[in-house]
Amino acid sequence: MTSRVPTPLPFADHLERESARFRTVLADADPAARVPTCPDWSADDLLWHLAEVQWFWGEIVEQGVTERGGLAAVEAARVARPADREGLLAFFDHATARLRRVLSQLPADTERWMWADDHTVGYIARRQAHEALVHRLDAELTTGQRTPLDPCLSADGVDEALVVMRGHEDDPAEPGLAADPLGGAVVVSAVDTMHTWTVTPLRVHGTESDGDELDVLALDVAQGARPGVTTEVCGTAADLDAWLWNRPPAGEVTRVGDADALAAVDRVVSRAVD
C-alpha cells in the first residue's frame, strides 16, 4: 500500500478540529447510547476507541519508534480504560493534545513506524486526521447532530480510502501474487472538488514473499478519469468518503453504467478495514 496526496493539507490542524468536534458531540451524550455505524459500541466505547488510537500514535511519534520491534514497549505503556465519562474525557484530552503537539514539532518526512508503506510523521498526521473525521461522523450519527464534513479533507479521504486502504499495485518483489479483475473499470468523481479516480476491482491472491497466503479484494487505482470508461460513481467528496467507510452519505451518491462493474466495486468497498 502506498499513499499519494493530491494536495498536501494541514493535517495536524484538521486533526485538532475534528477531535474537538468529536469531543463536543460526545461530552453530553448518553454513555450507553449505541453507535449506529458501529453497533457493538456505545458512545463511551467510541470515545475510548479514538482516545486509545490517538494515544498510541502519539506514543509512536514521541518515543521515536521506527521499527516494529519498538511496539512492545508502546503496548507495555498502555493504561487501563477509565471507569467513568469524566476519566474518559480527561484521557482523550491528554491524548489529543499530545498527538497534535508531537506531530507539529517534527518535519513531515521524519521517519516513524507505520503499518503502511509510508513510514513518516506526515502520513501518521494524515491518517489520524481521517480517523478523527470518520469517528466525528460516528459521534454525530449517535446523537443526531450531523454537520457538514470539510470538502478538501474529504477529497483527500477518498484518495486515501481508495489508494492506501484498498489499493493494489503489482510489486515485482511479490511474484507469487496474482491480481484477477472482478469487473470493469469505474470512475469515482467528487463533483464539488473536481477530483476523479478510475478503479478496477481485483481479487489478489497467492503466496507472499514471507510465505503467507493472501486472498483479498482490492482496487487497481489510477488518478483521473480513464478515457472510454462510462461507468461512474459520483457525489460530493464528503458523501464519497462516507460511502467508502461504509457510513451513510448525507446526500445522493449517483451510480451509472455497468451494473456488474458497480457491484464488484461494492464488494471491495464493503469489506472491513482494520
UniProtKB/TrEMBL annotation:
<dbReference type="GO" id="GO:0005886">
    <property type="term" value="C:plasma membrane"/>
</dbReference>
<dbReference type="InterPro" id="IPR017517">
    <property type="entry name" value="Maleyloyr_isom"/>
</dbReference>
<dbReference type="GO" id="GO:0046872">
    <property type="term" value="F:metal ion binding"/>
</dbReference>
<dbReference type="InterPro" id="IPR034660">
    <property type="entry name" value="DinB/YfiT-like"/>
</dbReference>
<protein>
    <submittedName>
        <fullName>Uncharacterized protein (TIGR03083 family)</fullName>
    </submittedName>
</protein>
<dbReference type="InterPro" id="IPR024344">
    <property type="entry name" value="MDMPI_metal-binding"/>
</dbReference>
<feature type="domain" description="Mycothiol-dependent maleylpyruvate isomerase metal-binding">
    <location>
        <begin position="14"/>
        <end position="139"/>
    </location>
</feature>
<dbReference type="Pfam" id="PF11716">
    <property type="entry name" value="MDMPI_N"/>
</dbReference>
